[in-house]
## 1
Amino acid sequence: MKSLQSEIPHLLLDTPTRFRLVAEAHPLWRHPFVERCRAGELTLAQVRVLGGQMYKFCRQFPSFLALALAACPQEDARIVIGENLWEELGEGDPARAHANLFRRFTRALGLDDAQLQAVPELPETASLIDTYLNLSDHYGVTGTLGALCYASEGIVGALYTQIQAGLLQAAAFDREALMFFEVHIHVDDGHADKLESILLPMLHTPLDELRVERAIRMALDARCRFFDGVLREADALGCH
C-alpha cells in the first residue's frame, strides 16, 4: 500500500495535470512495439500487421464519438463532440474521412481494400474496440470523455509521431500514404483541449475524478494489449 507521503504530491496536483500524468506515466510508452518504432526496428511485414489491425480500430472511432454524443446531456459538450465526429467523417467529404485516409496507408502496404476487409480481427484488437464501446457502461459519460481526451486525442500526436518514425524506417512512404498520421499528429491536441474544457466542469467530487482516472487507464491498458497482439501475430507469421 502506498504511504500517505507518497500520495501527497499526487493529491496536490490540479485535476487536469493528474489526468495527463496518468497518460504520460503509463507503460504504453515503454511497450516493446513503441520502443521498436523509436529505434527504427520495425520490419515491413510487422507494419502490415499493424495496418490491418489498426484499421479495425480506426474505422470504429466515429462510433465511439457517436456514443459519447448520445450519452452527453450538456448542449455545449455535444457541440464539441459533434465537431470532432464531423472531422472524423471528413466534414462531408468521403475522401477526407479518416478511415479513408487510413486506407491510403494500407494500400501503400500492398493491401487492397478487399484484402484489408478480409484481415481477421485479433482478440486484442476486438478487446480494444469493446473497451471503448463499453466505457460509458463502466464509468459514465465523464469516463468516456476522459478516455477520449487523455487516452486518445491527447496522446496520439506523440504516439503517432513515434509510430510514423518507425514506419519510415521500415519502408519508403510518400506523403499521401501517411496523411492519416499527419492529420492526427497536427490536429488532435486541439481536440483534447476542447474535450478537457467540457469535461472538467462535469467533475464535482473526488469519485468523479477517480472514475475518469480509471477510464484513462483502462483505455491505455487496452491499447497496450493491442500492441501485444500485433507483435504476437507478426512473430507467428515469422515477421521478425
## 2
Amino acid sequence: MHTELLHHIQQYIPLNETEKQAIAQHVKVLQLKKKALILKPGEICKGNYFVAKGCLRMYFFDDKGVEQTTQFAIENWWISDYTSFTLQKASDFYLQTIEESTILILESSVEEALFKEVPKLERYFRLIFKRAFAASQYLARYNHNLSREAHYLHFSKSFPDFVQRIPQYMLASFLGFTPEFLSKIRAKKDRHIS
C-alpha cells in the first residue's frame, strides 16, 4: 500500500531506497469501511492522511444544525484538520470516509523524526501545501464571482470524479447549495444534453 504514496512523493522529489524504507516504516496503513469516522469534534487530530484508495470528507455542523462539507480527498490527496494536527488542539471537524477506503497515516508523533531522516520530505509537503492553498484561493474566488449554476458547472467539469462518486447532498453542502437546488441544476443540465 505504500506504493501509491511513494509514487506520489516521487512526482515532486526523488527518493533513494533508504528513504523509501524510512517512509514505509513511519507511515501506518488503515483499512476503513464506508462512513467510518476518523476524527470527531473535541478530539485532537493525530495524523495527516493520504488516500491510497477511496474517498474522505471533512465537515462540521453549523449553528442551525446543518452539515457543511469543507473538503474532500480522493486517491493521491492528503487531508487533515491542520489546525488541530499542527497545534495539537481540539478539532471542530468530523473526518469521515465516504467509500470503503485505504489510507496511510503520518502521525504527528513520528512526523519530526521522519523529517530528520528524510529532510527532503519537508520540500514535498511545502509543494503539496502550496498547491492546496492555491486551490482554496480559487475556490474562494469562484464562490464570490460565479453564479451558483456556473460554479457547479465549473466544478463538475474540473472534477468529474467527484460528481460521480460523492452523494449529491455532500456535494451541495460543499458548494454552498441545498440538495434541492443542486437537483434543479443537474436536471437543467441533463435537459440541455438530451
## 3
Amino acid sequence: MQTETSESGVALNRIIVMGVSGCGKSTVGELLGAQLNAGFLDGDSLHPQANIDKMAAGQPLDDMDREPWLREVGNRLGAVSNESMIIACSALKRKYRDLIRAQAPGTVFIHLHGSEELLTERMGSRPGHFMPVGLLQSQLATLEPLEADEFGLVLDIALPPGELVQDAVAWLELRD
C-alpha cells in the first residue's frame, strides 16, 4: 500500500473516527479530512435501509445487523491506495474494528469519548437524525475501549472540534 504524506508530514491513508452516537464523529471527521486533505465519508450513509429503520424505531442493532455495514466500511477504506480516507463509524466493539482492519489493514482509530450527560445533550439537539437519544444507553453498554495493541487515540469531546482535530493531527505527526 502506498501512503501519501501531507505538507505537514502526516501520513495519510485510512482513519476511522469512532465513538457512540452524538460524540461528533461526522463533525470531527469532516474537519480532520479538510485539515489533512483527505476524503471523508460518514459511515451512516453506508447503513442498509433496514438498519436505519430499526434504529429510527428505537431498536438497537445487533452484531448480525452491523456485520454487512462494517464490511462495507472496511471495503471502502480498503479500496483507497494513493488517496487518503477518513470514515466516521461507531466501531464500538473490538471485533467490529477487527472486521474493518481485515478489509483495511493499518487503519487508525480516533475514539471520541465523552460523558453520558454531554452525549445526551448533543443527541437531543440534532433535529432530523434517525438515531434517538433512547439508544445511547445500548451504545454505551456495547462500547469496548481501544485496547493497548490497537493503533489509536482517545480524545475528550468536552474540547471544541477544532482542538480535537489539532490534537489528532499532532498525534498523527508524532507517528509519521
